[in-house]
Amino acid sequence: MIEKRQLFPIRLSPSETLEVWAPGITAALDAARMALPYLRQQAGTSGGALARGDEGLTYILTCLLCGATNLSDPGKSQLVALQEHQMEAYGFTSQAFQSALSVSWQMQDETRYVWVVPQAFADLLHLPQRCFMRAIRRPPKEQQAVPTTQLRPSGVVRTLEYKRPIDGVVTQMVSVEDEDEHTWYGFPCGEESTSVRLAWPRSEWRLADWLE
């Protein structure tokens, strides 16, 4: 039985906000960290034609286990063709696909998705890694629900610090509404009326109020 999932928007760095559908924050953080290297990778089409969805959006589908891109099979969508390839080559089952968590990253000119299976399925199928499929969708803006503009209650303002390996420390003022052992939850200051509440992982961000 698949656990009920909710959306976790996770600010992994000042410029990277990933969205994960997961049963809890621990699973969401785990999947986000697994997927991030594959979300960052540049992807080409390997000379093949781009797949085309029902709404005319083009996308690139890649098997992350072998690199096969935009597989085709007459009479089948490229997603079905890729899934059947993974079933034949790696023993994937419908349960394995259903157990996977989806991690997405909205960029300026495209949206990237990576699917991550739980460790138990990776062990059962003897997979070399847990990230098994990536989709890159274009053009830049997808049809999405208009965000609510109602005012949300203010939290406690905190300064969170992120240390980038190349150019040093970046700080962000955050209105923190809740927290747990893994994460702070809140809005970047000044965006409370329009943004979705983000998760700020403690492993990537630390309190820096002493800088004020």
Explain this structure to me?
The protein has 212 residues and is an alpha+beta fold. It has two domains: 6-138, no CATH class; 156-211, SH3 type barrels (Roll), CATH 2.30.30. It is 19% helix and 36% strand. The chain contains four helices and twelve strands, in the order ββαββααββαββββββ. It has helices spanning 25-40, 78-90, 94-99, 119-124, and strands at residues 6-13, 16-22, 51-52, 58-63, 101-106, 111-116, 131-138, 156-164, 168-179, 183-188, 198-201, 206-207. The strands form two sheets. The protein has a seven-stranded antiparallel beta sheet with strand order 1-2-5-6-7-4-3. A five-stranded antiparallel beta sheet has the order 11-10-9-8-12, with no helix packed on it. A hairpin with a 5-residue loop joins strand 3 (51-52) and strand 4. It is elongated, with a radius of gyration of 19 Å. Residues 45-49 and 140-151 have low confidence and may be disordered.
Short description:
19% of the residues lie in helices and 36% in strands. It contains four helices and twelve strands.
| H/E element sequence | EEHEEHHEEHEEEEEE
Mean pLDDT across every amino acid position = 83
3D shape: elongated
The largest sheet has its strands arranged as 1-2-5-6-7-4-3
Q: Name the helicity range.
A: 10-25%
In total, the number of strands is: 12
Largest sheet entry? 7 strands, antiparallel
